[in-house]
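Subject: sequence -> structure tokens, single chain

Hey, anyone have a minute? Need the predicted structure for the following. Not urgent.
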Amino acid sequence: MDFELTKEQKEVQAAAREFAQKEFKPELARE
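Reply:
Had a minute. Here:
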């Protein structure tokens, strides 16, 4: 089985990470 993320999934993941970095303080992200 191929567990690699699709291109779309990787784009969503990157967008979510970017959003989280902008919206949340870094100290909260570590919890």
